[in-house]
Design a protein that fits this description.
Blueprint lengths: L2 E6 L5 E5 L4 H10 L6 E5 L5 H12 L3 E5 L4 E5 L7 E2 L1 H4 L8 H9 L1 E5 L12 H9 L3 E5 L2 E5 L7 E3 L5 H11 L5 E5 L5 H13 L2 E3 L5 E5 L10 E3 L4 H13 L3 E5 L7 H10 L2 E6 L2 E5 L9 E2 L11 H8 L5 E5 L10 H6 L3 E5 L2 E5 L8 E3 L3 H13 L3 E5 L1 H5 L5 H7 L3 E6 L17
Parallel strand pairs: 2-15, 3-14, 6-7, 10-11, 18-19, 22-23
Antiparallel strand pairs: 1-23, 1-24, 3-5, 4-5, 7-9, 8-9, 11-13, 12-13, 15-17, 16-17, 19-21, 20-21
């Protein structure tokens, strides 16, 4: 049976919620574990379908993998990598698995990796990955939907990225770790997940300088220098931003725990401009609340440290009932407004012109039947349903499951009225389960 969310809106979210490990970081750390001929253990790993897919990709390559749900840890024993092919059946399900290309080329000097799939949010080409690998000395063929990379010896190179692509930066970091000499990636992505990957690799014995800036230098090391480690993933800034949005949208008050506030500076600044209250109460905890009607703002999505494209849909949801007119410009992906038709069905007044969305605040949204089209659009519809009058149904939950662990349970802990059921099961939306410790 296909499960759906049933959400009764209008209840302020109150209490505290703890943020899990960063999906967009842990997937890359798992791929990086291939580089060490030993056992690596990663903590703070969320229980997500994307994590399961990456485990399957790595196991297919010959590594031993284990996920411990109680401990929230992944163990990867990469002593024996016996296969250099990452098949279409798995890579097509999740774009991030393409990251094994750089790791395999680095360790095995050859890789055959299917061209990636993932959310249908727009064109995300792999040209930058290919050009960078070629600069390092790899010979690349693309045929039958696979990238075949082969290199007798990787040699350090100067690589300039036309755009600060996160995936390309990560793949080239992994490929450069064991190259002879130094590599320099210019116009590199600066996301916190890049810094996490560099810290992880350095802990393994790599020599990487400058992660988090636009220029990263990777000094190649000998394969025997790399070793297995234990490492804890950073918190998920997008999950944190999603819960901040949900609390503000419902005029609630909550404590967001296990968050790195510095990773959300730009987003937090925009929420404050809209009229939300956000304050740091502990080094890794934010108190978020909102009593009054929000004010409309304009913003443009940008690579980090700018406004994150992954939180654009949450901000749009907040703007649907804000005072005035807000304009969002999506500068990164051409199909990142896939939540717009669904929000309109809830009564939102949104005019879309290519990569611009003009949102005129309405008095309220009303519940209806909705469908998630991708991960972040799906999460924004959950936020919209929580703030709407009446009951909403959301289908295509497999998109949301890719990036949010125990989403409905965390919402219920904040008092949200949400159930995950198939159509035949009885629905009870009378009560949430407020976490009394923070009321």
């Amino acid at each position: 049976m296909t499960e759906k969310y049933y959400i009764k809106g209008g209840t302020p979210l109150k209490g505290e919620v703890s943020i899990g490990g960063a999906k967009n970081s842990v997937l890359k750390l798992m791929a990086a574990a291939i580089l060490a001929k030993g056992e690596t253990k990663i903590y703070n790993v969320p229980d997500l379908t994307d994590v399961e897919i990456m485990l399957n990709v790595i196991a297919q390559l010959g590594a031993k993998t284990e996920y411990n749900k109680e401990e929230k840890s992944v163990t990867i024993d990469a002593v024996n990598i016996t296969n250099i092919t990452a098949k279409y059946e798995l890579v097509s399900k999740m774009r991030a698995s393409f990251i094994v290309l750089g790791a395999l080329v680095s360790r095995c000097k050859e890789a055959i990796v299917a061209l990636p799939g993932g959310c249908a949010i727009g064109e995300r080409r792999v040209d930058f990955h290919i050009k960078g690998l070629e600069a390092l000395g790899a010979k690349i063929k693309i045929e039958n939907g696979y990238v075949h990379a082969k290199v007798p010896k990787l040699t350090g190179a100067e690589i300039y990225l036309d755009i600060p692509s996160v995936g390309a930066t990560e793949n080239l970091m992994l490929a450069s770790v064991l190259a002879q000499g130094s590599s320099r990636i210019q116009n590199a992505a600066q996301e916190p997940e890049i810094v996490d990957l560099a810290n992880f690799l350095n802990s393994m014995g790599a020599d990487i300088i400058g992660a988090g800036t636009s220029e990263i230098v990777i000094n190649g090391v000998k394969p025997e220098k790399l070793h297995g480690i234990e490492y804890t993933t950073i918190p998920d800034r997008i999950e944190a931003g999603t819960f901040m949005s949900a609390i503000i949208a419902t005029r609630g008050k909550g404590l967001i725990k296990n968050v790195f506030p510095a990773h959300l500076t730009f987003f937090t600044d925009k929420l404050l401009k809209m009229g939300a209250n956000i304050k740091l109460v502990e080094p890794n905890s934010l108190e978020v609340s909102c009593k009054n009607k929000l004010q409309s703002i304009n913003f443009v999505t940008q690579p980090y440290p700018g406004f994150p494209t992954d939180l654009q849909s949450m901000a749009m949801t907040l703007l649907t009932t804000a005072d005035g007119v807000g304009i969002i410009t999506e500068s990164l992906y051409e199909n990142r407004f896939m939540q717009v038709p669904e929000l309109r069905r809830m009564g939102a007044d949104i005019h879309q012109d290519r990569n611009h969305a003009i949102i005129k605040g309405v008095k309220k949204l009303t519940g209806t039947t909705l469908a998630a089209s991708d991960l972040r659009a799906g999460a924004s519809l959950v936020v919209a349903a929580l703030m709407a009058d009446g009951t909403s149904t959301i289908e295509n939950l497999h998109h949301i499951d890719r990036g949010y662990e125990n989403f409905e349970n965390k919402i219920r802990l904040l008092g949200g009225k949400i159930e995950r059921k198939n159509e035949q099961e009885p629905i009870d939306l009378t009560e949430g389960m407020h976490n009394e410790s923070y009321l």
